[in-house]
Amino acid sequence: MTDMLVKLYELEVDWPAVTAHQQQGIHYRHPLGSETDLILQWVQDRFSAGWHSEVAIALSQRPPRILIAVQDGHLLGMACYDTAALGMFGPMAVAESHRGQGIGRLLLQLTLWHMGAMGYAYAVIGWVSSEEFYAKAVGAIAIPESRPGLWQTALKRS
């Protein structure tokens, strides 16, 4: 897995797809403070302890460094930034039952759009699992020799 770079000043958001999702009842927004425990439990039930820690960091910031996708009061997915390091995107996740609907792509685009609005010119997507997805969705390019990157001295569970 490698890191990838995105030029936020050239980012294009698929606003018609965002509108189409809104018409289907899927909304993208920052979480409310009262939703913190529900989001952390959702992440803990599905993903690693490291992701749980990073999402907790995102939720503790003001404004939160996380966007969520919600439908009928249910969390469909989330995307964070500024958690592992400033200027880094991730983690991002979509519920298995809702994958393949474009939710991850829109969470990615909207979260990066927020980063650009905050003044970032570039974003680094760390340890990507699918270079093709990120290249197609936001024009990300691989950063040579970026593995293991930031995580090369990360703590390991005993």
TrEMBL record:
Keyword Transferase found: yes
Cited Gene3D superfamilies: 3.40.630.30
GO molecular function: acyltransferase activity, transferring groups other than amino-acyl groups
Keywords assigned: Transferase
Name used for this protein in its record: GNAT family N-acetyltransferase
Domain N-acetyltransferase: 26-158
UniProt xrefs under Pfam families: Acetyltransf_1
